[in-house]
Specification:
about 10% strand
Length: about 170
Amino acid sequence: MPFHSYETVATAVENAKRLAAAGAEAVKAEGGRAIIEQVRAIVAAGIPFCGHLGMLPQSVREEGGYRVKGKNETEHQALLADADALVEAGAFAIVLELVTATVAKEMTARISIPTIGIGSGKDCDGQILVTPDLLGMLPWYSLKHVKPRLNAAEQMRTVVTEWKDALIQRK
């Protein structure tokens, strides 16, 4: 769900319904226990819900940047508690983004719904590879979980510069 579209139970349900009416088969939101009442209400409204734990892209600035979660015992236990809460609330799957491989493995074995990893190790039930990561479109950040197969960011800069130079030369 879009950033700030599920801050309250009422807005979460209203916006989840809007997405479903537009053709979405399910919704996904970032967070665990902090949004559990929203999750329960969305599921109660008959809309399938997918959770998202670990690194939360919508909150990356508030969290101080991209970093792997679950490295200390406090984060480890919080991630497990969040996953348990999402399962209890009726989530059908959980995306684990930048969660330590050991915590992701433990969580995958512990919960009854699938885990889908993004840079969270090989033991999740499924894997996501974000295409821009594979294509090297993030030159400002070096990812540890994927080696870019192309330097698309540099190629795009070159093409745009060539285009701009051609325009200037026409004058």
